[in-house]
Design goal:
Layout: E1 3-7, E2 10-11, E3 31-38, H1 45-51, H2 62-73, E4 78-88, E5 91-100, H3 104-113, E6 124-131, H4 138-142, H5 155-167, E7 171-180, E8 185-194, E9 200-204, H6 211-218, H7 237-244, E10 251-257, E11 262-268, E12 271-279, H8 291-294, H9 300-306, H10 317-329, E13 333-343, E14 346-358, E15 362-371, E16 375-387, E17 392-401, E18 406-414, E19 423-435, E20 444-459, E21 464-479, E22 484-500, E23 511-524, E24 529-543, E25 546-560, E26 570-572, E27 586-588, E28 590-601, E29 606-618, E30 620-624, E31 627-631, H11 634-638, E32 644-655, E33 658-667, E34 681-686
Parallel strand pairs: 3-5, 6-8, 9-11, 12-14
Antiparallel strand pairs: 1-7, 2-7, 4-5, 7-8, 10-11, 13-14, 15-16, 16-17, 17-18, 18-19, 19-20, 20-21, 21-22, 22-23, 23-24, 24-25, 25-28, 26-27, 28-29, 29-32, 30-31, 32-33, 33-34
Helix pairs in contact: 6-7
Amino acid sequence: MRRKIYALIITATLFLSMNGMTKAAENENLKVGTIQFSQLKEIPEELLLEKIPVKSGDTYSNKSLSEIYLALKRLSYISNVNVYPKQEGDTVNLIVEVDEVANALQTAERSEVSKNLTEKTEFIVSKVDVEGLKTISKEETLKNVSVKKGEFFVPQQAIEGAQKIFETGYFNSVEPVVDRAADNTVSVVFLVEENPSVKDVAISGNTLFTQEELEKALGIEEGKILNGNLLDPDNNGIIKLYDKEGYTTARVESINVSKEGDIHIGISEGMVDSVTFKKVNSKKENERSSEYRTRLRTQPYIFERSQSVKAGEILEAKNVENTIKDLYRTGLFTSIEPVISGKEGDSNARVVEFLVEERPTTTINGSISYGTSVGLVGAIKLSDSNFLGRGQEAAINLEASNQGDKTFEISWFDPWLKNTERIQAGGSVYWRETRDDDATSADVETVKRIGTRWTLGKGLNDKIYVRLTARYDHYKEILGSKEINDKYNLFAVSPSLIYDSRDNAFLPTKGIYSTLSYEKGDLVSDPRKYDQFEADLRAYHRTFFKDKNVMAYRVVWGSTGSGTPEALRFSIGGAETLRGYEYGKFDGFNKFHATVENRIQLNSTLQFVTFFDIGNAWQNTTTVGGKKVNTPDREGAKNFSDLKKGVGIGIRLNTPIGPLRFDYGWPLDPEVKGGQKTGGKFYFSFGQTF
């Protein structure tokens, strides 16, 4: 006589028919709160809490619901499970509704005693069969079941076999029934109930995609047997479609399946309720808070004009990314982190908050340095790249050397005037005196210059700008004998075109910056004419060690007319152009210089740099009527003859008073053809080279 050994019940409603199943926004701040069980009669709540992998305090995700559901569905003493999430702020409380089988406590005790079911028994499997099939073939149903006819029976294989069948997604319930025969053989029969055929699919809450588009993405066809796996929140084709199009906070709010095959899916697309910018609180423990520590210095309109995320619009990932990118490009911020959360009482609302850390922009820099050509140099500079919190650049600069070089300048520039369509404006007033102690008696030794410069520009978009600059300068060129050799007033107008795709204006790691400018000048009451063309191209990209290493490139070309006074001609050499050579060692009517830098960020304060520079400036010196005359060397400039090269190392130090730059360059060529190479030179200045 055959005797039933046991029956493991894995029967319940359809896998994903949990009312209120929610796909939470991709937000690591959402945590699991309380987990409460309802409708318990015999089973202790503590036992069920041990059986589920999700615990209070864990990070909440879509998978939390399915993990709880699957863990409880595997228990022989639980017949049905529903999980209801309830979001309160950043916490999701879970209510787990369970239906117990008859004699649940007895079944649970038997199950707990029989945990070790992996060992082989002395019984041989005589039969493996499936009962209850209507649409699905027996071969397809049993293909992943490890219980085989003629092998020793392993109880765990029957349990896993039922789970494998259930995981195909086509069954509402699976029950493995094991019977023992008198000849010590067993038969394993899987009693199954197929899912209903899909009668109708209804989707609500969608505005971005049509019903037809979502049905196609879902992959469920009317008239065919339902595959519950297609409704799995982690594999749901609807959510994959939203994610693909950048709507990453869209979620499935609910999935309901009736016994008749009617499916209803509720969608929350994620409407932006509010957008705020909050200062990162760097206050240390036991340190008093203050309005300064919590209030952003940057004016609200600076954020608003960079803000692509708008209240009342569906939240898109690209808009979040563009907001962050545009804010970084201002150079005013060191850190920007988005936090997206739900709103209590409105499952479709998304609250967007950007946590912002502002860059220290007000600096007082004082320095003392020494160069062989300029001697001992003292400088003090007061600057602010976020003047009055308006994103404006303002500076006062004083500099002097023991060899007679002097500089005084006041400057101001607004890259985007308030309440305008990307209008720029700026100006400066300056007085400069430079000396050349290496000059011959026939050359200019001292140049005195006083003037003003004003700029007006317009952004065509966020990357392309056009500018018009006008300046008026008064020049005196003095010989070694203190005789005024040349005196003139210059009025010049310069249109320029600028392209800027850098990720950060002050510390770029990727992007391109290029300028094309032409300056046309008139020497007042002087027959000479002055014009100048210059092209500047810079590029940046990350390389080794991800964002810790940046390659930077620069190429500059310039040409000026034969009527250009000596003080306005190009000069090459020094910290900004050709390191390893004297400041302004090479001058002429044409110039070319290029630089390659490798910048390695060692920590938040220190950056190590290696560089290679190449360049020169050209002019011809001829004698006319017994007097030396300099003329443009077009041919020499064209073939780039006699280019000078230099290599070196440097350090960039990020200090509370501003970025400092220390470079040491070695010349690879003599300054004069046929001459001897000079030794290396040290340079000290502020900020990056470019």
